[in-house]
């Protein structure tokens, strides 16, 4: 019944240490469903939690890992029984609660989503929080009236986790996309994932700023925030919409109101953490129908618990491309 987990501890000088330990079920927290974790995802927030940056983790010892997928081994909740395959993202799991960098977790049943038969647990973590957030963003763009015939969709932070999945989903759905990326070396991969055009972030930002700029995009999936979000808003066409989900370029937004009052542009915030069950379950069902794991496979890297320290430093330094998944 023992299992392995990466345990984070804070020493007397405030430094975070990371050690893989073998534990028993008596170490698990309270909860009504126990899950044998088959795969965990690796995200920017995991980089913060693993290093103590951002103050997301308050209590130690701690198990990080904001998403995971696996098989139910015990359940006292009527919705789940042993053998069920489940996925968990959000709800501050891995930040305030025991997370996915472990072979086992015990959680609140309300946080789980049954895994659609069309996805393996590995597929679910190739997607992970990044995939769910990309799907929620595309769903919201469509609800705002954006359709493939509306025009080009700009995807920012295109070489990252959310960006690469957003590109592949939009491409499968028949959208024309432009990938905005600061890393020219990934241009060919972005095109293979479905980007029609790759735009260098330096060139995009170097264009002279005007209160309103030439309308180029029917919509955007923005992982960047900051100056990038402000600029792209000024380039959205009449009636277009933007799904703002990230802050890779900063939390301030350098924007003005003209795109809203002269072009009727809609700015929508996307949060994956506290989404109600029905919305997340519907997003996972749609992902199962349209995500093509084979198309995405060459931007997936597999690591183990011992590799997480290096991965944390890589994601915080912006050198991760696509998705990293963890076999605990
Ligand atoms: P990644 O680290 O995988 O990707 C982020 C990408 O942002 C990088 O690959 C890079 O893309 C780009 N980027 C980095 N620095 C800058 C910069 N200074 N200006 C503009 N772009 C930059 O992270 P994820 O894809 O997992 O997450 C993206 C963002 O979304 C993060 O801020 C994350 O916290 C947030 N997020 C929010 C969620 C929500 O629920 N709202 C859920 C998941 C993530 P490139 O190299 O192509 O330029």
From TrEMBL:
This is Quinone oxidoreductase. Signal peptide: none annotated. PANTHER family: ACRYLYL-COA REDUCTASE ACUI-RELATED (PTHR43677:SF1), SHORT-CHAIN DEHYDROGENASE/REDUCTASE (PTHR43677). GO terms for molecular function: acryloyl-CoA reductase (NADPH) activity. SMART domains: PKS_ER. Coiled coil: none annotated. InterPro entries: Acrylyl-CoA_reductase_AcuI, ADH-like_C, ADH-like_N, ER, GroES-like_sf, NAD(P)-bd_dom_sf, Zn-ADH-like_protein. Residues 18-326 form the Enoyl reductase (ER) domain.
């Amino acid at each position: 019944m023992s299992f392995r987990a990466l345990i984070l501890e804070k020493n007397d000088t405030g430094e975070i240490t990371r050690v893989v330990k073998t534990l028993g079920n008596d170490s698990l927290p309270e909860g009504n469903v126990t899950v044998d974790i088959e795969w965990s995802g690796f995200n920017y927030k995991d980089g913060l939690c693993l290093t103590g940056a951002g103050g997301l983790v308050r209590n130690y010892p701690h198990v990080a890992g904001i998403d995971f997928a696996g098989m139910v081994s015990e359940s006292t909740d009527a919705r789940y029984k042993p053998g069920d395959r489940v996925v968990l993202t959000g709800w501050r799991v891995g930040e305030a609660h025991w997370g996915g960098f472990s072979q086992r977790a015990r959680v609140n049943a309300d946080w789980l989503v049954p895994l659609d038969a069309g996805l393996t647990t590995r597929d679910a973590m190739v997607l992970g929080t990044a995939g769910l957030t990309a799907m929620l963003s595309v769903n919201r763009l469509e609800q705002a009236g954006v359709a493939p015939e509306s025009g080009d969709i700009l995807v920012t932070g295109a070489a990252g986790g959310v960006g690469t999945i957003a590109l592949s989903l939009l491409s499968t759905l028949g959208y024309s996309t432009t990938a905005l990326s600061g890393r020219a070396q990934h241009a060919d991969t972005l095109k293979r994932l479905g980007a029609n055009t790759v735009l260098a972030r330096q060139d995009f930002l170097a264009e002279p700023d005007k209160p309103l700029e030439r309308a180029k995009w029917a919509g955007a999936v923005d992982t960047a925030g900051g100056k990038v979000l402000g600029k792209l808003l000024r380039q959205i066409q009449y009636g277009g919409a933007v799904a703002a989900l990230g802050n890779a370029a900063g939390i301030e937004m350098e924007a003005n109101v003209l795109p809203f009052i002269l072009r009727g542009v809609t700015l929508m915030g996307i949060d994956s953490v506290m989404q109600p069950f029905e919305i997340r379950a519907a997003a996972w069902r749609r992902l199962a129908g349209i995500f093509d794991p084979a198309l995405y496979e060459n931007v997936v890297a597999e690591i183990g618990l011992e590799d997480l320290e290096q991965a944390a430093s890589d994601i915080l330094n912006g050198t991760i491309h696509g998705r990293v998944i963890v076999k605990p």
